[in-house]
Amino acid sequence: MSQKVEKPVLSGQRIKTRKRDEKEKYDPLGFRDSVITGLDKCANDFEAISRYLDGAGSKLDYRRYGDSLFDILIAGGILVPGGTLSQEGEGPYKTETCIFSSPDEINLEIMKSWEQVFIKLMRRYKYLEKIFQDEIKTILMFVKYFTPADRKKLSVMVFLWISNNSIPFNTVVVLNNSHLVKEHLALDFLIDIFKWWRQDKGVASLHSAIKKYNIESHLMSFIPDTKQSHAYFRTAFQENGLEEILKLYNDQHQQQAKKELQTLLSDGLQENKPMREIITELKEFATRELILEHETVCIIWTTVMAQADWNKKEELVTDQAVRHLKQYTGLFSAFAQNARAELSLLLKVQDYCYSNMTFMRAFQKIIVMFYQAEVISEPVIFKWCREDYNVKGKMMFVDQMKDFLEWLQNAEEETDSESESA
């Protein structure tokens, strides 16, 4: 039986690692030093900056150090928590060839030259687009620590980057930080973005972009919850010529308030609160949120009608609707105190009956019931009949009301005759 003889091993033998298997050391400071050295040679020549960044991408690892690259181009060095520049390393930690080193007196043409630097860089290295979008969110969280002048410069650039689709508009929502909101820094920065946009592209373009990205729904989150802050919010928009955007906010705020009013009523009805208590709560809320009576009475209609499980048979649903609505005539009457509110309610009934097939023949009985309960008055019914506020099903509903309208007309004429005789 043969024995296996071990082969001799040379002592001190070194196993050479393949270069491709070596893990490269993470060295953002070395990357920073290289970039700063290259940028410093370019000074304020934007064509030279773009040429340098284009060529350096083949030597420097942009994919790995992309966040540091954008920090350098914006702030001049690598940003660390607290919004300051890292001073580690032996080389110069800051370059003057950056956005924050541009003149404090904003020159839009210079800022647009910087915009082109970023566009060319990300067009050449597409993978930088995602890195850039993420890093901007981080940089925006540092606005508290930047100087007022640097915040202005950054707000201009954010406007330019949003308008050229380098970053989405909703990136600004990251400013919704309790400290930034409390000190009005988030709101001021946002208004600066709006102001530069209005100045360069016009308020119509700004309005369109805000609507497209639903930014108006986020505006409330930029306001500290105090009356003084709400006044500051309105004043800031008005002083900067942004009344059109303020209107968007007000519309959004009103929509939210109306939803809350509807929830308040729905909860009150489900909890079987006394009607007087419900009316008081609704009036206080509507007054506070500036919801007008004609808007409130329509919300009441929608909410009340949603409370019932309606019969699917047309011949039965009419009587069911009248019985159901009679329970709430006091509620409707409390908010139908003027002709506009009465007409709005009548039109709401018309729209509902037209849109819900089983209610087509219920219109006349509902309106007569509201008339008898003194919710909708005679002059308003005649006004609705004569004028075309809503043509949907109008002729059919007028035909339904024919006998009642004739009765009203005759009663009115008899009243006039009695007055003349007296």
Polypeptide structure, described:
The protein has 422 residues and is mostly helical. Among the domains are: 142 residues; 103 residues, Serine Threonine Protein Phosphatase 5, Tetratricopeptide repeat (Alpha Horseshoe). It is built from 20 helices and 2 strands. A two-stranded antiparallel ribbon has the order 1-2. Helix 2 packs parallel to helix 4. The longest helix has 28 residues. It is elongated. The mean pLDDT is 89. It comes from Photinus pyralis (Common eastern firefly). Pfam families: HEAT_5MP1_2, W2. This is W2 domain-containing protein. Belongs to the BZW family.
Question: Summary?
Answer:
The radius of gyration is 35 Å and the shape is elongated.
What would the keywords be for this entry?
2 strands; 64% helix; Serine Threonine Protein Phosphatase 5, Tetratricopeptide repeat; two-stranded antiparallel sheet; mainly alpha
What coarse outline follows from CA principal-axis ratios? elongated
Q: What percent of residues are in strands?
A: under 5%
Order of helices and strands: HHHEEHHHHHHHHHHHHHHHHH
Low-pLDDT ranges: none
Mean pLDDT value: 89
Strands ordered across the widest β-sheet: 1-2
What percent of the residues sit in helical stretches (DSSP H or I)? 55-70%
Q: Between the first and last Cα atoms, what is the distance in angstroms?
A: 144 Å
Main sheet attributes: strand count, strand direction, barrel closure: 2 strands, antiparallel
Total DSSP helices: 20
What's the total number of strands? Answer: 2
